[in-house]
Amino acid sequence: MQGFAGKVAVVTGAGSGIGQALAIELARSGASVAISDVNAEGLAVTEERIKAIGAPVKSDRLDVTEREAFELYADAVKAHFGKVNQIYNNAGIAFTGAVEISSYKDIERVMDVDFWGVVNGTKAFLPHLIESGDGHVVNVSSLFGIFAVPGQAAYNAAKFAVRGFTESLRQEMVSGKRPVKVTTVHPGGIKTAIARNATAAEGIDPEAFARVFDKKLASTSPERAAVIILDAVRKNKARVLVGADAKALDILVRLTGSGYQRLFASVIGKIMPGIH
Ligand SMILES: NC(=O)c1ccc[n+]([C@@H]2O[C@H](COP(=O)([O-])OP(=O)(O)OC[C@H]3O[C@@H](n4cnc5c(N)ncnc54)[C@H](O)[C@@H]3O)[C@@H](O)[C@H]2O)c1
After folding, report:
1. Is the terminal CB of the chain with fewer CB neighbours within 10 Å at N or C?
2. DSSP H stretches of helix in the chain
3. What is the pLDDT of residues 84-121, one digit of tens each?
4. 43 φ, ψ to 5°?
5. Which residues form a coiled coil (predicted)?
6. Looking at residue 215, what DSSP letter applies?
7. Burial (CB count within 10 angstroms: exposed 0-12, middle 13-18, buried 19+), residue 79
8. What is the pLDDT of residues 167-177, one digit of tens each?
9. What's the confidence (pLDDT) of residue 124?
């Protein structure tokens, strides 16, 4: 796949899953790539694979919740490559637990990584993207940023927030005539380590969630997801739904309005652990 020759792209959470696949596909498509993660082992694998492609790569440990470090990192990437064109705010975590049994700390942690991590990345890089004259912000929400399900209130809140933040930013860039495109990504179930890396409210077995996710919900490979996302970036799509499940459920929600909640409360409430 071509189309990113000469571009400098930044990918957070690039040590696993969708972020790893995005970084590799960007490198294959001609981009120079700045990759980061808190998972040093996974990041080293991504770095090796990009080097094998022959693309320029800068690899750093970065926790997306650390705002000051993110600002310094943005300047370091700019200094290293001379410019920055694209940021993929991809790093994220999953968490399962009904509101009644989730602690404030649980909910704050999910918001810190999944929402504030995206805000930090967007704000740290936006001046550089504008300066490049050809920028793109790509923020990873979820299908759970389009509808809510029981047991995912914290994750739903973070992913709905990413969607609102990103859709507003896109309009600001248009009305302010800034040279920055903006895309929100809504993956359906992607076969990654997300559920195995997930935590759960006290008393809930996170592995029960992982088993349901791996067996029943994950259907698209991360490599396929990366190709779909980069195609949408190339076409400057406002929103990209990744996977047949995402497309079908988006239609269901639009057709039923708030009615989907009655349906999901009974169906998903039965298969998701940690609800009631
Ligand atoms: N897999 C899916 O089905 C799915 C569906 C919808 C949305 N998403 C979203 O896609 C994104 C990527 O998830 P994935 O499925 O590839 O999961 P993954 O667990 O395979 O990869 C996520 C990566 O993010 C990193 N990470 C976690 N916390 C971090 C932090 N504080 N700072 C920096 N890096 C951090 C992890 O170390 C990991 O390498 C996430 O935002 C996730 O919410 C995934």
Report:
1. C
2. 17-28, 40-53, 67-81, 104-110, 117-132, 153-175, 206-212, 222-234, 244-256, 260-271
3. 999 999 999 999 999 999 999 999 999 999 999 999 99
4. -65, -40
5. none
6. I
7. exposed
8. 999 999 999 99
9. 98
Domain ranges of the chain: 8-271
Look up tokens 């001609």; give the residue. 30
Put simply, whether the predicted model's pTM sits higher than 0.85 gets the answer: yes
Q: For residue 2, what pLDDT band results from cuts at 50, 70 and 90?
A: low
How far from 216 is each of 109, 190, 210, CA to CA, in Å?
26, 11, 10
Protein residues with CB under 6 Å of any ligand 1 atom: 12-13, 15-19, 37-39, 42, 62-65, 90-93, 113, 117, 140, 142-143, 187, 189-190, 192-194, 197, 218
Report the nearest-CA residue for atom 28 of ligand 1: 92
User: Residue 176 Cα, ligand 1 centroid: separation in angstroms?
Assistant: 31
How many residues are present in the chain?
A: 276
Residue 44 pLDDT greater than 80, yes or no: yes
